[in-house]
Design brief:
The protein is an alpha+beta fold. 50% of the residues lie in helices and 24% in strands. It has four helices and six strands, in the order ββββββαααα. β1 and β2 form a beta hairpin. α1 crosses α3. The longest helix has 19 residues. The protein is globular, with a radius of gyration of 15 Å. The N and C termini lie far apart (30 Å). The relative contact order is 0.13. The mean pLDDT is 85.
Amino acid sequence: MSKIKICNAEYEIVFRPLKDAVFNGCSEIGKCDGINYIIYIAEDMPSNRKIQTLIHELIHALLNEANYSRIIHNKLGEFEEPFVEAMEKPLLSLFIDNDINDIIREIK
């Protein structure tokens, strides 16, 4: 079982079959539960799609921890998802194309 820490929250990353990934009556390949600190990812996908989905759900978690999910929803309605989708590929590229740990070690 993997976990990732964002601010003071520790999110559990749970992989499960797509057939079991039904939220609000809809099948979803990923879901961020910001109340219980769980990120669900469908396990029956190619690795690159699982990584992309994880990044997508992590953006939701970041917004949740920054309290921006509530702000975005209150101000913009359902515009959180397009924002997350717009950030997904650039962040995926950031993490895949760079060794962030090496850069941080170099700065220290």
